[in-house]
Design brief:
Blueprint: H1 5-30, E1 51-52, E2 64-66, E3 75-81, E4 87-92, E5 98-104, E6 113-115, E7 124-129, E8 142-147, E9 153-158, E10 179-181, E11 190-194, E12 199-204, E13 230-231, E14 241-243, E15 252-259, E16 270-276, E17 282-288, E18 297-299, E19 308-311, E20 323-329, E21 340-347, E22 357-359, E23 368-374, E24 383-389, E25 395-400, E26 416-418, E27 427-432, E28 435-439, E29 473-474, E30 484-486, E31 493-501, E32 511-520, E33 548-551, E34 555-560, E35 566-575, E36 580-587, E37 592-595, E38 598-602, E39 607-614, E40 621-634, E41 637-638, E42 644-653
Length: 668
Amino acid sequence: MQPKRRARLGLILLSILITLIGVEWVQSEQLSRIAEARPLSLPSEQPGFPANLSGGRIEDSSPTLANIDSDPELEILIGGIDGSCQGKLYAYNYDGSLLWERQVPGPINSTPAVADIDGDGQVEVVVGVGGWAGYEGCADGGLIAVNGANGAQEWFFETADWLNQSPDGHSDGVFSSPTIGDVDRDGDLEIAFGAWDQCLYLLDGSTGDSLWGALPGSSSGTTYCNNRGFYNEDTIWSSPVFYDLTRDGNLEIIVGADISAGNRNGDPSGGYIYVFDKNGTQLAREWVDQAVYSSPAVADLDNDGTVEIVVGTGLYWPGTGYYVTAYNYNSAPSDIKDRLQQKWRTSVAGRVFSSPAIGDLNEDGIGDVVFTSFDGDWGTTGSWVYALNGANGAVLWQLPQCDRLDNSFAGRSSPTLADIDGDNHLEVLFAHAWEVSIVNHNGTYYTAHGVFPNPDASVACSATADGTSSDYYVANYSVFASPAVGDIDQDGDLEIVIGGIYAFNDPGSGGGLHVWTGHPMPSNDKIPWPMFHRDAQNTGYPPMPPHLSVAPTSLYVMHQYGSGETERSYLNIRNTGDGSFSWAVSSKPANVTVSPSSGTASYTVTVPAMVTVTTTGYTTGTYSLGDIVFTGTAESAPVEGSPARVPVTLYVGDVYRIYLPLITRSAP
């Protein structure tokens, strides 16, 4: 970590702020020109919205939709700034009324996560605090957990004071969004997050205490992370994802990070993608030439039964990080630097702050990867939205981020995916300029954007066709985070939610919460990525459906003629997806028995089944006995891979066995 890191961190966010000011000025100057364009349709806002928040603007905190009280509707959880050095966490009802708000000691640019973290039957809301460099030196950072019903604080985990390797008396900020899951499969929930104190933490959800002690630091005799976490030697912006890469029943922790030259690993400046086990042991570490602010996503992109890890880059080192990469994890290499093996890397137009979303845009059965990127280092000439084929990284489409006035600004929003118009195809939603932009599955605009001559337009946004709708989701001011999609009032249609500011022309206006309604409800598989990092726990992966696998796929049983009446062999029944399912032998040859003949398959356990073949009445020869047919069901429906057929062949005759010799050597 270099001494100038704090200054560079401020420069990063100052550059973003300058872009923001440009967006505000251009939009306010040109807003009157909207009348020159084709007619607009302003989608209906949910009654009670926009909501005028008591605190300041919402910037990088994305809305989380979850039921946190006893009613059936979903609440909106989001964080923001509250004057100098403080922040606020909000819970809003579906009708625009405030359920509660909680003042916290630093601004919030982390996205809340929601779960019953202490097992008391009441969900909690967890969020990072202090994640904004302009407030470092006066704001205390950490992770706060509050009661979902009333906002009362349950615990606060204070980070270390080490952003610049020079303590300033304040714990450092948390931009990273917390991820919640049962890492060790003991029935209790854990929470992982990174921080600007250069540490990665894993906490006990019930108490907020660290589950890790003093993990390796860069030198002996120095206390890092207050002896409560993994010391990275550089800041961590990325949000973790949990997934059982090793298929041992425990969840691994996958996260991006920064790194500077002079580190204990001897690597150049750039970034890392890490994999940790539940104890904080490094299972994999991949160096890249750019800091990694992007949050990884995990999915089986090519349907081969093995998940990929997909991640963008960051905004620190100039001229690098113009790509998105998919990795496979391989535990076989002894060196942890060789275990994340690149499946593909796709070059794009600029640095990728955005976190990928995953869904099947073109309905070919392959998970597609969607993200935004700057044009160049800072997006001063505009920004882009991409869709890639998840199997090979090929570009499906690349589209300039364009607003209604035909401008392209530095958009860093992480997209969400849902069918919001009832056409049975996914749309891509992201924040850009003053609006939520929506792109159709095929890379054409759904939302209205300019087609009139605009002398101030970016070259990238010379629109040749208007959107396929005339809808214009204007948020009255600049928005940056991810929109969320869900049926918050449980009335059978979808709402689109984004945080920003209430009104640009009201000097007393604070933060704003915008909700648009009236979008038809699709089937569940048409809302694959409805909010930042996919769900209310910020898990970052779509669970793989249960999948029946039986090995070997055929049996060849040999019987020595005249030696007995039965022969035995074995099959292994596995669930190569997530979750569990019930399995059974639905049919088999008459002279074959299988034991057990039914059971439950979870991905953590391989079930051995003994196959017994009765050989009575068979003379010498080879016989095709037929198939053993296995079926798997979950929630009364067949799982993938069901039915599985295992043909059984019996050979009767002379069976020769060759035994390898045991050679010993006597002592001389």
